[in-house]
Amino acid sequence: MNDTGDKSGQADQLPNKEHEEFGPYQTGLNTLYVSEQDVKDALLQYVSRKHFYRTAPAKHMKVRNLTPLNTYRYRLETFTERRETHWASELYGGGFVDSCAVAPPPAPWEIVVDPPPLFTDCEMHIPVPHTYSAENCPDCKGRGSTVCPSCKGAGKKTCSACNGNGTTWQEDVNICSYCGGSGKVRCFKCHGNGWLKCYRCNGSGTLLFHTELTITWKNNKLEHVVDKNAGFAVYRLQEVAGKEIFTDEHSSVYPIVNFPEPSINEGSRVCIEQHKMQFASECHILRQKQTVEVVPVSKVEYEWKGTHHSFYVFGNEKKVYAKDYPGKCCCSVM
Ligand SMILES: [Zn+2]
Ligand SMILES: [Zn+2]
Ligand SMILES: [Zn+2]
Known about the structure:
binds zinc ion; mainly beta; 6-stranded antiparallel sheet; 4-stranded antiparallel sheet; 4 helices
């Protein structure tokens, strides 16, 4: 029988964790996180970085309305560890070999290592103890040398001066002075040996093999942003930071069930399910963290020279999206 502890499927439907009270966080959606001066500064900075944008409208516009269109973002972070092994070889100059005769080699997950800080990507390569063995070099099959590819082992090549005939034609038939009439010359590459020192084992014929363990720690992220149809695509919010209002970190997290915005509960369920399917079989999940943020979005309606326009300021960084900015020049090089 399997144990019926935290990791069984049953526990997923029966969260044993007291969930936070989300009530007060709802107000975060209607908070205006920017002032009139903030949005003016943000727009001016935005247009001054763009070629072919005049700054006059940003400098002299009249702000008519500031509307908060903040939204929620859910993020799941799953910190995984993966262990893979492969054969590695190195030069062997004789001496002690830490083979399986010394002690049984540990299985990949039995090897104890210091993990990096949580939620940090990292890779480590470790030679597995007691997996060493000295064996014939596979490239030269233990001979220490390989057949010269230039002469294919013959040590000689066809003379290029006489094309292998041994004679040349100059007014009369002459013996080829280059090959002395044999039609063959010594191979330059192997100096006539027909063999070359094996590059891989440096001529020793033996290599020291061992199992190399590669451990990869990775912080895998999934996000779900609530689309409030604020007037621009929510993918733009990927670039910006928000204000964290909820965080939950455990060896494995349960879906959020009582957030006031149902789409966050659903996003949490889907993301957790997806990561479980993605990682359960081939990795160990070391830690999970889920956060909910309010991402500030403000719609700014303004007037310039009697015409009405709008733009958006979003994220803690106060990024700007201004599609109908009236100061765009039409003289761009297209
Ligand atoms: Zn050769
Ligand atoms: Zn010749
Ligand atoms: Zn070799």
